[in-house]
Amino acid sequence: MMLNVSTIEDALARLEQSINQYGTRYGNLTNALRAVVSDRVETAAGLINRAIRPADYEKIEIYHAAGRILAEDILAPLDVPGFDRSTVDGYAVSAADTFGASQSLPAVLRLDGSINMGKPAGSPLAGGFCREISTGGALPEGADAVIMIEDTEPASQEDELRFLLRPVSPGQNVIFRGDDIMAGTCLLTSGTTLKPHHVGALAAIGRTTVTVLRKLKIALISTGDELVQPGHELSDGQIYDVNNDMLAAMLKRANTEISCIGIIADELDDLKQTISQAGKAHDLVIISGGSSAGERDHAAAAINQLGLPGVIQHGLAVKPGKPTLIGLADQLPIIGLPGHPVAAWFMADQIIDPLIELLSGRKPRIRKTIVAVLARAVPANHGRQSFIAVSLRDQSGSLLPIAVPAASKSGLITTLRSTDGYIIIDRDQEGLSRDSEVTVYLWEDI
Fold it and tell me: Using the 8-state DSSP alphabet, how is residue 178 labeled?
C-alpha cells in the first residue's frame, strides 16, 4: 500500500466525495473541509474538528476542580465581602474626626465599645467616637476608616478616651462591600482551566460544586513485534517501547485521562479488535507504529474496517512524520503515529495536542519561543514542512543565542533529550542559511 500524500485539490475532492456519500451524519465536516489544507501539518487536525463527539459535563466538588475545564459561566450571586470590613486591628472612625492629628497635637475620641468578630457592627457610630475593631470585623455605619491600634494611646488614665496620633483618610485600612467581587459580576468564564486560586474565588461566593467538562479519555496503543515493555529483558532484535510512556507523559495535561493499552503484535485482527475495544471506553485512540505502508503496517486497514468513513488522510507533507494517518470510525477519532520516537513526538505535538484542545474544550496554549541565530545552514526537504530540534548556546558579544541543529534521524530519542527546542522550515522555503535568525519553540512549553 502506498501513502497518499496528496495535493490540496485531490485531497479536498476525495474528502468532499466522502462527505457527500455519508450525508448529514458527517455533514458537519463540510465547514472544516473548506478551511483546511489537507496535506499541511498545521491544519490536518481540522479534518475532523467538526465531527467529534462533544464532551460530556459533570458536576464535582470544588476541592477536586483544580486542573479541570469549567463548563459554565460563574456569576457572583453576592457581594464579597458582604459588608465594609477592617484590614487591621484598631479603631473604626470617621476619617473627618482625625484630620490634623499628630503626636504633638493628637485628636481625642471617646471609645464606644467594641465589635465582635462574625457579628453585626451594632448601632451607627456618632461623630467624636471610635469603636474597637479586629482584622476582618464589620465597620459600623458612620465609620469610613480604621486607625491601627499602634497609632493610638490611652488619654491619661481615662480608658474611655483615646489619643489618635496621626490622621487616616477615608477608606484607609478598609475593604468596602463588593471591593473584592460585586454581585452579578462574571467571575469565571466557560473554558477556563481551573487553578487553586479559582477554587478560592468559588469558595468566596459560597459555591460547593461546579460544572466541568468530563475528562477526555485517550487510549494509547503501541504496535510492533520488536517492541518490549520497559522492565522486561530484551532479546536480539528487540527494543523497548519508548512511545507509550513518552506520549502518556506528554499528553497527560489538563482534562485528559490516559490509558496505556500496551503492545499489540503486528497482526491486523489483533489490532482491529484492540482498537474496537478501546473505542468503547475512550474518546480518542492513538496508535503508535504501523502507520506506514509496509507489509506489517496494519493501522490504516484496521481503521477502514472499523467504521465509516475510515481513513481520512494517510500521509502528511512533513519531516519527520510523513506516515501519520487520521481516521474516523463511527465518530471515534483515531490517529496513527509513526513508530520512530522523534517523529511520534513532533506529530503528537503538532496534530494530537491541537486535537485534544478541540475535543476537551481546553484553551489553546501559548507557546514559548525565543529568537536565535542558526549555527549552520539547513536544507529544505522537497516540499515538506520540516521540524528540526536545536540546542541553544550563548553567543559572545550578542544578545541572541546560537541555535545548533541536531541530527535529523527520526529514530534517535537523544535528538530530543539533548536539545532545547525546535525550529520549523516551511514547505515553500528553500532552506535556511547560516546566521539566519530563527524562531525556536522551546521544549519547556511542551
Answer: T
User: Which of 202, 192, 60, 86 is closest to 138 using CA atoms?
Assistant: 86
Domains and CATH numbers, the chain: 8-56+215-360 (3.40.980.10), 58-80+180-212 (3.90.105.10), 85-175 (2.170.190.11), 369-445 (2.40.340.10)
Mean predicted confidence (pLDDT) in 301-317: 87
What b/e sequence results for 88-106 when a residue is b if at least 16 CB atoms lie within 10 Å of its CB, and e otherwise?
bbbbbbbbebbeebeeeeb
What are the E-state strand segments in 62-141?
A: 74-75, 85-86, 90-93, 107-114, 129-133
DSSP letters for 154-168: EETTEEEEEEE-S--
CA 173 to chain centroid:
38
CA geometry: angle at 364 spanning 280 and 218, to 5°? Answer: 15
The answer to whether 85 and 118 have CB atoms below 8 angstroms apart is no
| Contact predicate 225/266, CB 8 Å | yes
Per-residue b or e along 112-138, where b marks 16 or more CB atoms closer than 10 Å to that residue's CB: beebeeeeebeeebeeebbbbbeeebb
Among 12-21, 199-208, 378-387, 409-418, which is the least confidently predicted range?
12-21
In the chain, the N- to C-terminal Cα span, in Å, equals 34
Nearest to 81 by CA among 148, 169, 174, 170: 174
Q: Is the pLDDT of residue 8 over 60?
A: no
Q: Which residue has the cell 448601632?
A: 123
State the residue for C-alpha cell 482498537. 275
Q: What is the pLDDT of residues 358-374, one digit of tens each?
A: 667 677 778 899 999 99
Instruction: Of 360, 303, 366, give the one whose Cα is nearest residue 335.
Output: 303
- pLDDT above 80: residue 342: yes
| Distance from C-alpha of 320 to C-alpha of 322, rounded to nearest angstrom | 6
Q: Which three cell numbers stand for residue 275?
A: 482498537
Q: Given this model, what pLDDT does residue 97 score? A: 96
Non-local (6+) Cβ contacts of 206 within 8 A are 77, 78
Q: Whole-model pTM?
A: 0.74
pLDDT, tens only, 30-86: 344 333 333 444 444 444 444 444 457 899 999 999 999 898 999 999 999 999 999
User: Cell 464606644, residue?
Assistant: 112
